Amino acid sequence: MAGYRKVAIVTGGASGIGKAICNELVSKNVFVIISDINERDGKNFEAELNKEAINSRFVHLNVTEFKSVERVINEVYQEFNRLDYLFNNAGIAMYGELFDMSIEDWKEIVDINLWGVINGTQIGYKIMKEQGFGHIVNTASAAGLGPSPISSAYSTTKHAVVGLTTSLHYEAEQFGIKVSALCPTFVDTPIFDEAKAININKSIITKQLKKQKMMSPQQLAKIALDGIHKNKPVICPMPMRRTMNVIFTIFPPAHSALMRLVCKVSRKARIV
Ligand SMILES: NC(=O)c1ccc[n+]([C@@H]2O[C@H](COP(=O)([O-])OP(=O)(O)OC[C@H]3O[C@@H](n4cnc5c(N)ncnc54)[C@H](O)[C@@H]3O)[C@@H](O)[C@H]2O)c1
To answer: Quick one: which of 95, 151, 172, 175 has the most CB atoms within 10 Å?
Structure first.
């Protein structure tokens, strides 16, 4: 297998967006390393992808552990002699008023959503520099491009991922390495049901969010791979994005009003 087939590592590959990206990569004959903290779902998915041919391997990984991330990425590189794609995608969602949050809540989300991405990028980038090619794709969010009230911690981590990724996009190009930030809006995955809700009635928030027109993970994965192919620094598939940008630029109070509405609606879900 070594030598000719492209190889990708996808963190958070056992569910939602990561899973759809793995499926899409396999359809393009890329061998995928599904890495996830969820062993059961990861192994089931590995079996599904390997039904017709050996297309994948599941590796248990907690992205917050630098040494484990280092071991997984290094072992893949040693075995396959290449690392074509690294998707730092694992992440969690968290809702809550800032005054309801503890410092432990902050540490939990920063550890997974930001340090998880830094750990992967730091190791994958050096390997890609050595081999002279490769593409790092970090999953941020539309919440990394603008405010996301009552999800400030989530938004903080995603802004940081956008900053890291778009800066590295230019820093890396001299070495033949491509770097992109994936910034989805609403994608129909388990993330909403799994989200940590701090002093918030999660079912109210989830119900509100599910009123949004959600994209399927499969649709998102196709758009993501197209954006990756074009080496876009930011891939942000948001319906009406251009129209909204124009409206908000011409009429900034519309954006402020929308953010205040988000606050008002989310606050109704607060447990008093
Ligand atoms: N679904 C959306 O609407 C949406 C929108 C914007 C951004 N995103 C981002 O997309 C990424 C994927 O989210 P999703 O919607 O597919 O969610 P998901 O819950 O379906 O999948 C997330 C995966 O990450 C794994 N994971 C969590 N913590 C981990 C850890 N410490 N180490 C390794 N794996 C871990 C989970 O086990 C799960 O398989 C996340 O970074 C999320 O913030 C999602």
So the answer is: 95
